[in-house]
TrEMBL record:
It comes from Arthrobacter cheniae. This is Uncharacterized protein.
Amino acid sequence: MSKLTLERGVSIRQRWGRAAVQVGGLQWSIDGRPLALILQEARSSLPKEGRHLTADLYYSVLQRSNDDYGDAGRDALRFLLGEDEWEEFPGRVPLLIGQCLHVECAVTSAIIERHDGAVTWSQFQAHQPGPEVEGFPFPSAITYTFDREQHDSVLREAQAQI
């Protein structure tokens, strides 16, 4: 099983060797690798429109609580914990957003399946808002299964921070 962690304020330059851009909020990491980096590396498999859409989708929806973006992060945590569902894309959870820091601009989401002892993140997809707009699926090999107790513990800690 994979291990989910959240890191605060990951610097893109530090992690990815790019120009200095400080990414605020909490950042998803899976087995010690930022999810945003994993998906940025996989975006080459997307069609041109999908690569363009995903070019800056590396900001977590879990932003600082003292700004205007806390609601989207709190919603995403509830969706991940199975306490609520995203009305626009039932069954999916928004995970990464672009520089506008709003889910309404563009988002990378995943299907979340909760079982007795495990939680699976799969079928990652980049899309613009609106269920009528076709999204761009990432390779199906990008699937992660977490121990449910470890997964939910990380999310509960995050809820206390945003």
